[in-house]
């Protein structure tokens, strides 16, 4: 079923790629490639998985977010002459496995600061729970790269939800709810291409921010959106309790659905919590088919090796084999991180260098596609 050569049918058949890929074809990456080459808008790439996607590492501290492999991938693509950006934050990310509080979230991402009024919300969407406020306070996001434009994605709804955004401490612009439950996408002009801080302030009602994406609009880029959620199982990643802004709903939204999704699928936490392989495979299939149905391409990412003894970890290869079965059944590619064996900081989480090795492999794949 699996080939060490990788079967890069119709793509650059370099042995360096074939060693860690499977079933990547011109046909099953064509949508992503076409959008990128057209250059009419930023090309959207989402990363859907657990803490090894979000970027957690033992002792990682405040730089964990920017050291994740999706974020390091942006740096590598830019160095290779492919415009890319990863200046975004989505939800709380599972609070880095440290407990459901915004304080723990900020411990892993120094780009975000807030006052005590901002907390973890109950809305489950891409990248974790929303960040929100019901009392006076501020939340500030400072992208790691130079940008000039941002969009704030929030859960619009009942009348009375009222908040402001301000750039670099300047004048505030007010945002009011429409009264319709929907994704609200608020564009923000940050000024010239430079380092900027975007501050959100509560005014009234229940405000729920799902994500902030910033970029340089003087160019078209591949926007890399890290939707990893620490502790996520495959069931968590397809949670659509909020059918308006839920985790499957966001994959169908015209302005947010990814052109390409790298999906680890929560398999590590599936085997650690003894989720049946058949159930895990079914839920992974739901993720894949949802992306495909909405016009996106998919590359499945095998989990890193797990040295723990939790649940069904001893059977982890069976889950990986099931992922390959999904790749065959759904005609999508695989990026096999287990063949790279990135350096780890603990039983399963890579070090910063380990995440860099993963990003390097992903860069090679994107270069081959585009």
Offer a quick outline of the entry.
The chain has 370 residues and is an alpha/beta fold. 26% of the residues lie in helices and 27% in strands. The protein has two domains: 8-83 and 220-370, SGNH hydrolase (Rossmann fold), CATH 3.40.50.1110; 108-217, Sandwich (Jelly Rolls), CATH 2.60.120.260.
The main sheet comes to:
7 strands, mixed
What is the alpha-carbon Rg in Å? 20 Å
- What number of domains? 2
**Could you name the ranges where pLDDT drops below 50 across 5 or more consecutive residues?**
1-8
Helicity level, as a percent range? 25-40%
Q: What CATH architecture label of the largest domain applies?
A: 3-Layer(aba) Sandwich
Q: CATH top level of the largest domain?
A: Alpha Beta
Total beta strand runs:
18
Order of helices and strands: HEHEHHHEEHEEEEEEEEEEEHEHHEHEH
Widest sheet: strand order? 1-18-17-16-2-15-3
CATH level 3 topology of the largest domain: Rossmann fold
| Gap from first CA to last CA | 27 Å
Provide the residue-averaged pLDDT: 93
Strand content: 25-35%
Question: What does this protein look like?
Answer:
With 370 residues, the protein is α/β, with parallel strands linked by helices. The protein has two domains: 8-83 and 220-370, 3-Layer(aba) Sandwich (Rossmann fold); 108-217, Sandwich (Jelly Rolls). The chain has eleven helices and 18 strands. It has a seven-stranded mixed sheet, sandwiched between helices. α10 links the parallel β17 (297-301) and β18. α5 packs across α11 and α9 packs parallel to α10 (316-330). The longest helix is centred in the last third of the chain and has 18 residues, at 352-369. It is globular. The two termini are 27 Å apart.
